[in-house]
Amino acid sequence: MSTTIQIPQDFYYVGATIVSTVWVLLGQGFTVGKYRRLSGIKYPQLYAEKAEAEANKDAQLFNCAQRAHQNTLENIPIIWATTIIVGLRMPVIAASACGLWSLSRISYTIGYLSGDPKKRVTPLYGLGTIGSLGLTLTATVQAVQWIWQGVSAKLGH
Predict the structure, then answer these.
(1) What pTM was estimated for this model as a whole?
(2) Hey, where are the domains in the chain?
(3) What integer pLDDT is reported at residue 149 of this predicted model?
(4) pLDDT interval class at 6 (50, 70, 90)
(5) By CB neighbour count within 10 A (0-12 exposed, 13-18 middle, 19+ buried), where does 121 fall?
(6) What's the CA gap between 82 and 24, in Å, rounded?
(7) Is the dihedral of CA 78, 84, 86, 91 positive or negative?
(8) CA distance 37 to 76
(9) Any transmembrane segments, and where (predicted)?
(10) What CATH number should be reported for the domain whose range is 11-146?
């Protein structure tokens, strides 16, 4: 049994917003490298120790940049998968949610880089979280529909 997937005409929006997430990751990676150099934290040390961060503002900012980048890396597989799945049916909605998520990650990173981790949570970050949840729920509905269609086809309905 084979399945044909039709790519919607507006799917290029999905591709563009997925690329935006790559640029967010690259920007965060460069920021981590900048503060690693400024703080003097050597590889393979993942974070500055508490005493280092308390004694050196750049070490604290390194920790904040590193954590913002790591958190984005933890979430990116969910964003990519759900954006593609939703984008196969609703490309403009998927692209809008993914683009909003990318903007929210920039806001999140800027807030984190204030040196006060509490400032990472901004109104824009909250909107990105809503977009992410919307993508996840919509992708789940889409997956259930695909399964139902497959089962129905096998049963001859």
Answers:
(1) 0.90
(2) 11-146
(3) 87
(4) confident
(5) middle
(6) 18
(7) positive
(8) 26
(9) 12-30, 78-103, 124-148
(10) 1.20.120.550
